[in-house]
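Ticket opened by: R.M.
Priority: normal
Category: complex prediction / small molecule

The reporter submitted a protein together with guanosine-5'-monophosphate and asked that the result be attached to this ticket for the collaborator who will pick it up next week. Submitted input follows.
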Amino acid sequence: MAYDDQNIFARILRGELPAIKVYEDDKVLAFMDIMPQAEGHTLVIPKSPAETLLDLDAEDAAYTIQIVQKIARAIEKGLDAKGIVLMQLSGASAGQTVPHVHFHLIPSSIHELGRHAATMGDTDKIQALAEKIKAAL
Ligand code: 5GP
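Result attached by the on-call engineer:
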């Protein structure tokens, strides 16, 4: 399917919508999820316009996963996370709600995860968690 450049993450990438960012370079952006399933729920997205993991070229996929690892280490250190769930949904049938490929890093256990994209988090609390992650990068 053609990439929808009006999706929320494309608009965040263009600076049209705000996001609490923890890391950015020329290829990747990491920012806090606004409906976190656990404290510190972070999203890592490649900047290239790909809808699902299957649409992402191999070089971008390889680079993005390196940043996923970097952010996971910062979450572990900054938030003293004991375990991190890495989740990636490809396709609406898998439950993907935003059609720009992204990796969820959720400091939690698969047995404890809350409902997906269901409840808005507290912005001040999310901002404070982002500062701890950034300080640990
Ligand atoms: P998906 O269902 O596509 O795998 O995950 C999309 C994620 O994006 C969900 O966890 C949801 O909470 C989050 N999300 C949806 N809209 C926004 C937004 O405007 N800003 C941020 N930071 N996260 C969002």
